[in-house]
Structures are given as structure tokens and as C-alpha cells.
Fold:
Amino acid sequence: MSACREMFAVCVTAVFCLLSVSHSTPLVCEKLVRPLDSLAPHHLDGRWALVAGSLSDAPSMKALGLRDSITMYFSNSSDTSTYTQINRFGEECQHLSYNISVEGSTYTFDVGNRFKLTGAFLQTSCTDCLVTRWIVESRRRHSVDLYLLSRRREVEPREMEEFRAQLKCYQLPEPVVMDPTTELCPERTGTQSTAAVAQTEEAGDQKA
Structure:
């Protein structure tokens, strides 16, 4: 009889644990995918290095893996906000620049109405990181992208695990992790026109 009671107790405990996990997982994801209420412009401004990224669109995911490093700059002024991305391919540096509209933690890219590209900043416990979600909608594809940016080139294991958990919430594949020893491209004064960027973006060749 004692053995039966012990077996019953084990079964009850196992069922309780399973139920707890099934209820807690959506709650955990609810927190991990929640956009920030707002982001102070002074925190956003300046240089960010791409640490890791994952995309739901397989060709774009493959293209991300071809980049040796990616640098991203946000700049806010009273007149306009801009986003600049610099991709390194070996010794070559490719500069892409966009005007963006920022509202709270959401931003919209000006890509000449060729397709829709919006971003949002998500919650993260990393104090010098940004987790940004891009939603790309065009005639050719619909993609959800998550990127981990940092002032550093490499983050702590626990910070990367948090990002991986966010990817799981979006059912995205394992991320492309950038080599932190690869040199970043320098910023430049001149920028490529928005129209030219939009054309290359729509072709699916230039987007991170």
C-alpha cells in the first residue's frame, strides 16, 4: 500500500509540473516579446554592432550569414531620424541609409512605398543591448526578423540565452552569430539614396 501511495504522489507531481510548464511558457513569451513602451533617444543614438540575428525567410537568413560584420547607427534630430546599416563583405563595406519615423518603441522605414518595413524594440535584460523586431511585407515575401544589437561585440551567455528564448517564442531558427573578432566598417559622411536602397532591398539582396 505504501508503494502505491508513493507512486501516486510521483504521478501527481509529474502532472502538476507539466501543467505548470504549459501555463508558464505563454506567460514567459508574453514578457519576452513585449515591445518597450518607449526608448529614450539618447539611449538609441550612436553605433551598435549586430551580435546575432534570425529571420523567418530562408533566403534572407542565408544572406545574413554571408556578412562578416554589420554595424547599425541610429540618429535623431529635431528634423529627422535616420538609420544607417554598414555591411562588411571581406574588405568591402556597403552603406545603406534610411529615413525612419519613430513613435514610442516602433519605427517605420521610408523605402519609397515599394514594400512595408517596420521595426520595434523588445524587452531585454541586457543594459547595453537592443533587441529589435523587423516585419517585412512585400509582394514576394512576409518575414519576421529578430536582431540582437549591443554596444559590445559579444554578449554574456545568459544574455544570448535570453535572445534565443525570444527566438523560440517567434518560432524562428537558431540565430546567425557574428564573429566578434571581425573588424567593423567605419561610418562615412555620404549615404546611399533611399530610392537606391529600396530597389536593392526589394530584390532581397541587401537586407540584414
Helices lie at 2-32, 41-44, 58-65, 157-169, 194-202. The CA atoms of residues 62 and 107 lie 25 Å apart.
